[in-house]
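Worked example

This section walks through a single chain of length 294. The input is the sequence exactly as stored; nothing has been trimmed or padded.
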Amino acid sequence: MANKSIRGLSYFPQDVYMMQDLKIRKLIRYQSGKAISVYTHLLSLIYREGYYLKWDESLPFVISEILGFEEGYILEVIKCCLNIDLFSKDYFDNYNILTSKGIQTRYTEIVKLLKRTIKISEYNLIPSEEMPIPSEEMPIPSEEMPIPSEEMPIPSDKRKEKEREIKERVSKDTCSEAEKSASEPEILLENILFTWESKKSQNDKSRGKNFIFTKNDLLAYQKTYDFVDVERELKKMERWLLSNPEKKKTFKGYPAFINKWLSNLQTQREAKNGAKEYYSAPRQLGNVEFKKFV
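Given that input, the structure is written out below as C-alpha cells.
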C-alpha cells in the first residue's frame, strides 16, 4: 500500500496552453526560448520536494551542468522568473524558497487525486476560501451508505428530457464558440511581436484583454511612418510601459498611444532639415522599404 504521507511527487501535469501564458511569453522575450528548459527543470525539482524548494547557492551550478548552460545565465533566468511572478519574489526574499500560488494549487489538486493526507501548512500562498477540501474528507464510502434500489432508476421520460437539455446546451456552446472564432481570427504565435497587458475599463468591452501587436501590424505602421524605425520604437514603448505601470493603456487605447508616439517622431524628423532628406540607404523589412535615420 502506498505511503499517503509522502510529500514529493513523481510527476506533474503540463498545461498544453503554457506557451500562450503572458508570463511565459515574457520569460522567452527577456531570456530567450532556452529559458523554458530552466524553468521546467526548476518545476521538476520543486514538485520532487513537494510544493517549494529551499534555495541553495550551488543550485545554479547543478542546473548548468545538467542543461549545459552558463551558471550566470541560470541565475538571470531565476531572477527573471521572480520579477515576472512565475515564482513568488516575496517568499524568496523573506523565506529563501522558490514557490508560487500556481505551483501550490496544482500540487493540491494532484495530492487530492492521489488521495494523500497532506495539507499545505507552511509557506501557504492559497487563500483559505480557495483551498479545496481534501478528497479523503469528501466521499462517504458506498458500503457505509447503500442506496435503496427503488431510488436508483430514472423514469424514461425524465431521462429523455435531461438528454434533450444536454444536447441543446452542447449545441448552444458549440455555436457560440464558432461565432467567437469567426469574429476573432486566430493569431499564430510566431507572428506575435509584442503582447501588452491592458488596463481594465468599464466602458471597454474587452475588459483588460491583452493587446497583441503582430508582424503584419509592424508592416502597416512602417508604411505610414517611413522616417521612423517602428520596431525599435515599439521596444522603447514596451520598456516605458514596464517602467510606468500606472500609465498602462486600455485595449482600445493602445493604437492611439502607438500612433501618437510614432506621429510625433515622424513630424520632428520630417521638419528637422526642411525638404532635405537625411537618411541612409533604404532598409528592407519584409516587402516594405523604409528610410532609416543616421
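What to look for: The chain has a mean pLDDT of 77.
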